[in-house]
Amino acid sequence: MDLLRAVIVGPAGTPYHDGLFFFDVYFPSQYPCKPPQVNYRSGGLRLNPNLYACGKVCLSLLNTWTGSGCEMWNPSTSTMLQVLVSIQALVLNAKPYFNEPGHSMYANTPLGEKLSLAYNEETFLLSCRTMLYSLRNPPKHFEHFIGGHFRKYGRDILVGCKAYMGGAQVGCLAGDGVQDVDEGDKSCSQNFKCSLEILFKGLINEFTDLGVGCHEFQAKIVNSGAAADTTLRL
Fold first, then answer.
1. What is the pLDDT along the chain (234 residues), one digit of tens a residue?
2. Which residue range is the domain that position 174 belongs to?
3. DSSP labels, 104-172
4. I need a surface site. Which of 62, 144, 147, 189 has the fewest CB within 10 A?
5. Is residue 43 part of a domain?
6. Predicted TM-score (pTM) of this structure
7. Which CATH number fits the domain that encloses residue 183?
């Protein structure tokens, strides 16, 4: 086998929660002496510093970023599973803003946290657009998987959207509810809430078509006639 397509489910507690992220993998003839070549199916959107709009995956394990020791590809011990787990755990994390070189110096500072929250808001919007695009243009052979995934987790996604539009921090969704956040921490910006309302409407329409019970969320739909912008550059 020299070609593989993988999908990673966004982890709970991150701005990627419950999203689906597709990767195409090519195993060169020198594999495993050389690492696999991984391309992220971005649709032209960059929702993480390590995942470029052109599809490049920036990861030490793939030798596409600097590293040392066990961070780099080792022909004797490194595996494709390790690559996928690294992307899920290290790339699709709770505070991706700090993945950008030079941003880690602002971690645990008021400015850094403010910038991180703003980045998470934009990231969640891009994740929602990616969800809509995947539903309307599913990758070949993943049609049933995508439908089943969103039938199972569609309500959780809408619960999160509703909480974020109410002011909860992006990424606080865990399972069927919302994690506790500080009472006075209403971090979501107004621009984010307005943008999310439009995408929220699109998600409700798509999930309803899948058979997800969305009646409790219908009152949140904005009756402006605006359509969700889900156009992604290919």
1. 899 999 999 999 999 999 999 999 999 999 999 999 999 999 889 999 999 999 999 999 999 998 888 889 999 999 999 999 999 999 999 999 999 989 989 999 999 999 999 999 999 999 999 999 999 999 999 999 999 999 999 999 999 999 999 888 898 866 555 554 554 455 688 999 999 999 999 999 999 999 999 988 876 554 444 455 555 544
2. 3-212
3. GGGTTSHHHHHHHHHHHHHHHHHHHHHHHHHHHSPPTT-HHHHHHHHHHHHHHHHHHHHHHHTTPPTT-
4. 144
5. yes
6. 0.88
7. 3.10.110.10
